[in-house]
């Protein structure tokens, strides 16, 4: 189970990754993360992160007409967001490798 504390530090990077694949709106991002195995991430968690990414010029919004209901706010990644995503990926891989080494060593000692 992925706890909210574990997610806290990586969710922004994961949101950037989803948006980098395809222009997306909030609910769609939440659904995509769920499909990848992140569990149910509420829109109340996603939207504040989207707002922060937008304020920091990592994503840019555009309103598009919806098939049903009001227009949706779609987000696309900016060049600054793409650079931050690359940095996130590099840092995550380094962290993941360190954790894997630690756990492997623990298993070997058993």
Overview in brief:
Helices cover 66% and strands 13% of the residues. It has five helices and three strands.
Mean pLDDT across every amino acid position: 93
| Tally of DSSP helical segments | 5
Low-confidence stretches: none
Query: Total domains, how many?
Result: 1
**End-to-end C-alpha gap:** 24 Å
Major β-sheet strand ordering: 1-3-2
Gross CATH architecture: Orthogonal Bundle
From N to C, what is the helix and strand string?
HHEHHEEH
Helix and strand content put the structural class at alpha+beta
Helix-residue proportion: 55-70%
CATH topological fold name: Arc Repressor Mutant, subunit A
CATH class: Mainly Alpha
Describe the protein's architecture and organization.
It is a single chain. By secondary structure, the protein is α+β, with helices and mostly antiparallel strands. The protein has a three-stranded antiparallel sheet. β2 and β3 form a beta hairpin. It has helices at 4-8, 11-21, 26-38, 43-55, 79-109; strands at residues 24-25, 59-64, 72-77. The chain has a single domain (4-109), classed as Arc Repressor Mutant, subunit A (Orthogonal Bundle), CATH 1.10.10.10. The chain is built from five helices and three strands. α3 (26-38) packs across α4 (43-55).
């Amino acid at each position: 189970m992925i706890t909210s504390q574990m997610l806290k530090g990586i969710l922004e990077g994961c949101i950037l990754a989803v948006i980098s694949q395809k222009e997306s709106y909030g609910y769609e991002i939440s659904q995509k993360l769920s499909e990848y195995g992140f569990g149910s991430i509420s829109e109340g968690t996603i939207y504040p992160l989207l707002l922060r990414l937008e304020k920091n010029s990592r994503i840019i919004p555009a309103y598009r007409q919806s098939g049903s209901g009001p227009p949706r706010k779609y987000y696309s990644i900016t060049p600054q967001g793409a650079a931050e995503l690359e940095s996130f990926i590099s840092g995550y891989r380094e962290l993941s490798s360190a954790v894997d080494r630690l756990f492997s060593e623990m298993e070997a000692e058993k």
